[in-house]
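Kindly draft a polypeptide, keeping tokens residue-aligned:

***
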Amino acid sequence: VLTYVSRNLEPYRGFHRFMRALPKVLEQRPEAQVVIVGGDEVSYGGRPKQGGTWREVMLAEIGGVPDRVTFTGRIPYREYLSLLNVSSAHVYLTYPFVLSWSMLEAMASGAFVIGSATAPVEEVIQDGENGWLVDFFDTDAMAARIADGLARRGEMDALRKAARLTVER
């Protein structure tokens, strides 16, 4: 199970970058189930110039997604925490901007977090120590790293534990 969570699905939180990487991730991990949580409103930035929502724009750009990709919209907090508990890899992306509480909460839950190598994520995640970092602007490298993380999910216990300890401190 691959998870991506944002209050709203929009570029400031890297939704467009995640969606562009997703087809390659799905190709490399044909058994992966993907759960994308977030609304279609705008919290930061603006609406797409061409109209519609960022979800609609990105689905049109990549040609849609298979049934194993689920968009939940916003979900209650308890469901969100339950989702983090079943996540094999949790992707958190952002432009250099304010760090979302959701990344810290994912780490606190013991999720294996793959975050963007951008400020302020780099202030919290140390690549290979308490999570993995990916280049926000390199779609191929991002897809490869996410797919590798899913393939090696059984090896991430030390990173999960370190992530939790990071947030506890």
Remarks:
- Residues 28 and 148 are 9 Å apart (CA to CA).
